[in-house]
Amino acid sequence: MDFDRFTFGIYRRPPAAPVLSEEDAATIQDAHMAHLAKLTSTGEVLAAGPLDDQEDAALRGIVIFSTSLERARLLSVQDPAVRAGSLSLEVMSWLTPAGEVSFAAVPVPESMDQATS
After folding, report:
1. So what's the pLDDT on residue 33?
2. Are strands 88-97 and 45-50 parallel, antiparallel or unpaired?
3. What pTM value is reported for the model?
4. Where are the beta strands (DSSP E) in the chain?
5. Average pLDDT of 97-110?
6. Rounded CA gap, 40 and 105, in Å?
């Protein structure tokens, strides 16, 4: 059987995440979303989004890269939320039977205003 390999990332809120003002948190969130939107537009990110209804509140989101594990790790440290210490990103390889999963190019929000409008 053939398998497709994706680079899968899980965003977590670190135990020592900084306490931010509402304004600073919003600024970092918008920068984080703009970063992911840019990577989606270049084809390096196939899908990304927040988690909801999870039992562990530290689990914040998922990202699926089209890149190598090494490139995904490099891109993760460029994420403004990771740089600010608000999030960490654990990346790993994810294998699925070939053709089982596909992704379509769709518009993605670059800010919370776009996501909520």
Report:
1. 97
2. unpaired
3. 0.93
4. 3-12, 45-50, 59-65, 88-97
5. 94
6. 8
